[in-house]
Amino acid sequence: MSPRLRGALAAVTTVGLVCAGALVALPASAARVTHPENGKRTETLRVATYNLSLNRNAAGQLVTDLSTTANPQARTVAEVIQRTDPDVVLLNEFDYVEGGVAVDLFRENYLEVGQNGATPVEYPYAFVAPSNTGVASGFDLNNNGAIGGGDDAFGFGAYEGQYGMVVLSKHPIATDEVRTFQHFLWKDMPGALLPDDPATDAPADWYSPDELDVFRLSSKSHWDVPIEVGRRTVHILASHPTPPTFDGPEDRNGLRNHDEIRFWADYVTPGKGRYIYDDEGDRGGLRPASSFVIVGDQNADPLDGDSVDAAIDQLLDNRRIVDPRPASAGAVEAAALQGGANLLHRGDPAFDTADFADGAPGNLRADYVLPSRDLRPRDAGVFWPVQADPLSALTGVFPFPSSDHRLVWVDVSVPRAGR
C-alpha cells in the first residue's frame, strides 16, 4: 500500500498537536461479527496491546532494520499480529521516528507481507507522536551527582523516542480529536505520590521544587485516540507506565508507575479528571457517556512483582471498567517449567502476559486491554501457545525471537448506532 494512502500521522510540538497529514477517506474494514444484542445490531471489535520490543540501542537503527523485509524479529512480531488479527492494536516499545517513517516501513515490509504462511494484515490508519523517553531534563533526577544519560531524561531512554508507542487501526482515527498528555506535570495531580528522600526529614523531597516544575508524569506519554467504528466512537486510551524498578528505597519509579496508572482511572471517572490538561491546554477528563478501551503495558501485576500495592487495582476495581481477564495455557505451562519466583506467586499464572527472569520477578500480568462497561466483552486471550503448538516458536524462551511480552487481545461488542 502506498504511503500516500495511509491514515493521518501526528506530531506533538511544545504548543500542541499538529497533524502531519490529512486523514484519507478509506473504508473501514468489515466488522468481525455482526449480531443482534438486546434488539440492537452490534459489531465485534478486536482490540489488542503488544509490547513487541522493537526498540533499538541507537537512534535510526529501527528505520535501518525495517527498510528490508528480512529482519528476523520484525518478521516474528509481525506474524504474531497477523495470527491474532486485531482491528486496533497498541504497539509498545516501538521507537518514535518523526513523520511516522518507522511505522510505515513496518506496515509495508512486514505486516502487509504474509509471514510464514500467515495472512497479511493492513492497517490504513496509524497514530504516532513523540515520547518523553530520552528527552533531557537538564536535572540530576536520580540524584547521583551528575546530569545526563537516560536516567535523567523525563522518561528513561538513551535517545529521544526510544521505547515509543504506535496505535494501528483498521478503522478511521478521528485525528482532530486526539488528546495527548506528554507534558502533564506530575506535581499537578492532586495527592500525587511524590517520592521522598530517605536521607532528609522533609517529606516528598526527592525532587527539588525546580525539578517538579518541569517533571512530567508520563514516562512515555498518555494518548486518547478516538476510533470511528461505524457511527460509534471508541476512545483508545494508550500508555506505557515506567517499570516500578531500577531505583532505590525512595521508590521513585514505583510511585510514578502508580500515578501513571491512576491518570487513566481519574480520566474515565466522572468528576475526578477535572485537574487534567492536555498538550493543547484543554482541561478535563473523558465525557461520562464515552466508550473506551484502556490498553498498554502497565508494568503492574495485581498480586506479584514490584509495583506499589494496588497500583493496577485502580483500573481493575474501577466501576466504569470491565476486566475480561485474558488467559492462556502457554503461561501456565511456562510458570511450571521455569519455576523460580513463579512457584511463590499468589496470582494465577494463566493470566500472565510477560516472561520475565525466573529468579525475580518471575512471569507477571503486565499488559492489559480494559474496556468500558458499555462495550461488552465477547472473548479474550493472550497469545502464548504451549510448547507442543508449532506457533510457540513465535514466543519461544530467552533469548526471545520476538519479545518478553505477549500480545493480549479482547473482543468487544460495539453498538452500531449512537455515539
Automatic annotation (TrEMBL):
Family annotation (Pfam families): Exo_endo_phos
UniProt protein name: Endonuclease/exonuclease/phosphatase family protein
Native source organism of the sequence: Microbacterium insulae
Domain Endonuclease/exonuclease/phosphatase span(s) in chain numbering: 49-405
Alphabetized GO MF terms: endonuclease activity
Signal peptide location: 1-30
Domain of life assignment: Bacteria
Entry keywords, A to Z: Endonuclease, Hydrolase, Nuclease, Signal
